[in-house]
Amino acid sequence: MRKLFALCMLLALLAPGCKAKPRSGAQLATTYQVGIFANPENAQSLKDSLVSMGYEASVEDFTEKGVAYKRVLVSHAGPLEFIYQVGAFKSEDNAKKLADTLAAQGYYANVRKVAINDATYYRVYVHNKDSQEAFSIKMRSMGLGEPVFRSLKTY
User: Fold this and answer.
1) CATH of 2-76, one of 3.90.1570, 1.20.1070, 2.60.40, 3.30.70
2) What is the CB-side half-sphere exposure of residue 18 using CA atoms within 13 A?
3) Per-residue pLDDT tens over the stretch 107-140
4) What are the φ and ψ backbone dihedral angles of 17, each rounded to 5 degrees?
5) Would you say 81 and 128 are in contact if contact means Cβ atoms under 8 Å apart?
6) Hey, what long-range contacts does 142-146 have (CB within 8 A, 24 or more apart)?
């Protein structure tokens, strides 16, 4: 029990917002916050999407500074890889330059072409296996703003 408590404390320090709880056998499930929304319909939509992909997801009330939000949580008993959008460009060259910059820093980044309202954009996605908070801080320090969660996968 002490080891579980110590692990929970370590997770709390490394990834605020994450909780650990025991699962069957010796496995340990971790709960990740993958989104937070002012609009409850957006939270429910993300949760439904994750459930359709086979993940154990839930929506939870969260209040900060008197403002009510809905946060989406995913529980999983193994490692996860989070995929974030960190940029969108009209120029494919600019998107590729950002992806190359991120790759040089050790991230797996790729570019995807999307059409929105008759316009073409090139989105830059980064795969992250590390602390979500540290990743967000790193992206903001590079001037990219807050990464947008797009998907996750097990590995």
Assistant:
1) 3.30.70
2) 23
3) 899 999 999 999 999 999 999 887 778 888 888 8
4) 95, -15
5) yes
6) 142/101, 144/86, 144/87, 144/98
